[in-house]
Design a protein that fits this description.
Layout: E1 2-5, H1 15-30, E2 34-39, H2 49-62, E3 68-72, H3 77-89, E4 93-96, H4 100-109, E5 124-127, E6 134-139, E7 143-148, E8 156-158, H5 166-177, E9 181-185, H6 192-202, E10 208-212, E11 215-216, H7 232-237, H8 242-251, H9 265-271, E12 282-283, H10 286-299, H11 302-313, H12 319-325, H13 335-344, H14 350-357, H15 362-374, H16 382-396, H17 400-412, H18 420-427, H19 429-445
Parallel strand pairs: 1-2, 2-3, 9-10, 11-12
Antiparallel strand pairs: 4-5, 5-8, 6-7
Helix pairs in contact: 1-9, 3-5, 5-6, 8-10, 14-17, 15-16, 15-17, 15-19, 16-18, 17-19
This protein binds one RNA strand through helix 4, strand 5, strand 7, helix 5 and strand 12.
Length: 446
RNA sequence: GCCGCUAUCGUCUAGGGGACUAGGACGCCGCCCUCUCACGGCGGAAACCGGGGUUCGAAUCCCCGUAGCGGUACCA
């Protein structure tokens, strides 16, 4: 089995393309297959070094590798021209100057009939499509469909300037590369009979086809920027883990059984099959990815998560903070907002201060807490901190919440933070007392 | 317009004639846990697009309709 996947040469790796790449990869890796990477760029200028680089980086981040390539259609121009000449010589193709207007006029004159041109010896090269019979597309996920040849146009396979059209180029490249399985988006389905016709004219074999359902945004329209993340790069920047992205993408258009949701990459390689790919388009739901990402994130060891967060945020010395925030975040991006006050001091949140420190019992609460913590003997650890703080609550006659929230705001500046005991323990004696004192002064001033 | 594909909870899906009072997951709602936010646990609401067939029996098969999507380029 030889499969090949064609990333879009137009920049970021779109989520839909990523899924196509993933399925090709799983298929090859699960079946001893060879994976070929080829960039579809007959349209010359499309593959810029920057675009390619971002695609390769996205694939690498996902862990999707390949055995051969990258190759480029544009590098194969001579071979394409040779095939075109051969098809003309064999009478399978002809040169014609007919353009869109002529084609339209022809179709208006011939009711329900594909365009048929005449040999003119110049112009673009068109393939001669048979006037009868059907071209059958056999698709692993969709079954068989017969297309009436008479309805198909004589399609252009090379421009007047000699450059090949995509359909010709893929077919030639796939045939030359010995590609046996073509797994691509369903937007190519209606084009498949054209490619099969080219294969037949060339005498090349037809590979096994599988067309994947398209991906849509929440509104059922094509996934676009206004739906949020649309590329693998976007997901990476949003703090998703590659293993979660792979798991989620695998499930968009494919299901293994009645209840399994989590699959490791190795399990996916083993379990994935084209036969179980669904036919209906799927909607990309970032909320579910988010949930799944949180699950993966919580399964990481503290050391591993720390390493990823340090790479993601560019900060170091995060381990202790990571340990107490791990089960509060769903993406890497959520870490810093929750933990920054440990490193940069209390954040400035006037609303939180007014709402919590402005309460009448706040002064009393901070006073009790200050004296309790001030008397706490070393070591300054979570266990001792919790003990004295709970005692302070007891003495104050207030509810735990009435004491802890002012303390939380005094220490972090906000009403949302890791557990209060963990926070106090991590901050350390000096910093904790200093922040409490600072908050008390601020309160008196106000 | 023509050709084609698709159609199960809001979303991802399981289902391939009786096991379906249609299963799981996300999200949502409620309860529990609780120092905030989360996490976690428990429970709940929520779907077979419509109409005809076939059959003793249809979510499952066939036809029609409807809707969505794709193709119809000297784009990929």
């Amino acid at each position: 089995m030889r499969v090949r996947f064609p990333p879009s040469p137009t920049g970021a790796l779109h989520i839909g393309n990523a899924r196509t790449a993933l399925y090709n990869w799983l298929l090859a890796r699960g079946h001893d297959g060879t994976l070929v990477l080829r960039i579809e760029d007959t349209d010359r200028e499309r593959s810029t070094p920057e675009n390619e680089q971002s695609i390769f980086e996205a694939l690498e981040w996902l862990g999707v590798d390949w055995d051969e390539g990258p190759t480029y259609q544009s590098a194969n121009a001579e071979r394409h021209a040779e095939v075109v000449e051969q098809l003309i010589a064999d009478g399978h193709a002809y040169r014609s100057t007919a353009g869109p207007e002529e084609v339209r006029a022809y179709k208006e004159a011939h009711e329900s009939r594909g365009f048929r041109g005449a040999e003119e010896g110049e112009g673009a090269v068109r393939l001669r499509v048979p006037d009868e019979g059907v071209t059958v597309v056999r698709d692993v996920v969709r079954g068989e469909t017969a297309f009436e040849n008479t309805l198909l146009d004589d399609l252009v396979i090379a421009r007047a300037d000699g450059t090949p059209i995509y359909h010709l180029a893929v077919v030639v490249d796939d045939a030359d590369a010995g590609i046996t399985h073509v797994v691509r988006g369903a937007d190519h389905y209606s084009n498949t009979p054209k490619q099969i016709l080219i294969q037949q004219a060339m005498g090349a074999p037809t590979p096994v086809y599988a067309h994947l359902p398209l991906l849509h945004g929440p509104d059922g329209k094509k996934l676009s920027k206004r739906h949020g993340a649309t590329s693998v790069e976007d997901l990476r920047e949003a703090g998703y883990l590659p293993e979660a992205v792979i798991n989620y993408l695998a499930l968009l258009g494919w299901g293994y059984d009645e209840e399994t949701t989590f699959h490791t990459v190795d399990e996916l390689k083993e379990r994935f099959s084209l036969e179980r790919v669904s036919k209906a388009p799927a909607v990309f739901d970032e909320q579910k990815l988010r949930w799944m990402n949180g699950r993966y994130l919580r399964e990481l060891s503290v050391d591993e998560l720390t390493a990823r967060l340090e790479a993601f945020t560019g900060h170091t010395g995060l381990r202790d903070a990571v340990a107490i925030t791990q089960d509060k975040i769903s993406t890497l991006a959520e870490f810093w907002p929750l933990a920054r006050s440990f490193f940069e001091g209390p954040v400035d949140d006037p609303d939180a201060r007014a709402k919590v420190l402005g309460k009448p019992e706040a002064t009393d609460a901070l006073t009790q807490v200050r004296s309790a913590l001030g008397e706490l003997a070393e070591p300054w650890e979570q266990e001792g901190v919790e003990r004295v703080l709970r005692d302070a609550v007891e003495r104050s006659g207030l509810k735990a919440k009435q004491v802890f929230q002012p303390l939380r705001v005094a220490l972090t500046g906000t009403t949302v933070s890791p557990g209060i005991f963990e926070t106090v323990a991590l901050l350390g004696r000096d910093e904790t007392l200093a922040r409490v004192d600072e908050a008390s002064r601020g309160r008196q001033a106000a």
